[in-house]
Write a structure and sequence with these properties.
globular, 76% helix, mainly alpha, 6 helices, Four Helix Bundle (Hemerythrin (Met), subunit A), 178 residues
Length: 178
């Protein structure tokens, strides 16, 4: 089945984000710049991951705050989505918030998973993943109202690092088991 123009646009942007994610995470995990590594004590790796995940928390807070501000300032939306159908802007902001919440949950869990089992030098992938997450959310929010192609890069730059870290950690477990 041939892809239409919108599908090709989405695919190009998602593949670009995948390549960028692989390059950034691979470089961070292999080269592990000292400033991205946790303190030498491996027991602090989880704390280190959560410290970096403050960037993800900020993205979620901004998504919630943006929708709340819009609802407060817009009489048609002030009662919330449970009581109104919502303006088009409120629907977009709600969709951005929902996606940001979903992405935040899986990213933080993936970062904690990675931090709990990967070798010390690979821990630098977590800050790299958080930076990609924040950049991805910016592109996602800016592109959302313009359609799937415009938000694809941001979505993928948020999603792929999470997938890469999860798959990488699972592979690490399998390699260590055999």
């Amino acid at each position: 089945m041939p892809l239409d123009e919108k599908q090709r646009h989405v695919l190009r942007n998602m593949l670009s984000a995948l390549v960028l994610s692989l390059a950034a995470l691979g470089t961070a995990a292999v080269m592990g710049p000292a400033f991205l590594l946790p303190p030498v004590d491996s027991a602090t790796s989880l704390t280190w991951a959560l410290t970096w995940d403050a960037g993800i928390l900020v993205c979620l807070i901004l998504a919630i705050g943006t929708l709340a501000r819009h609802r407060f300032l817009t009489p048609a939306d002030i009662d919330g989505s449970g009581l109104t159908s919502g303006t088009a802007r409120a629907q977009v902001l709600q969709a951005v918030l929902q996606n940001t919440l979903e992405q935040s949950v899986i990213a933080v869990v993936a970062h904690l998973f990675w931090a709990s089992i990967m070798p010390f030098g690979a821990q630098a992938a977590i800050p790299a993943a958080v930076v990609l997450f924040v950049i991805g959310r910016i592109f996602f929010v800016e592109g959302y109202a313009k359609g799937a192609g415009a938000r694809a890069f941001g979505f993928a730059l948020t999603f792929y690092p999470t997938v890469i870290l999860t798959v990488g950690a699972l592979i690490w477990i399998l390699l260590r088991a055999f």
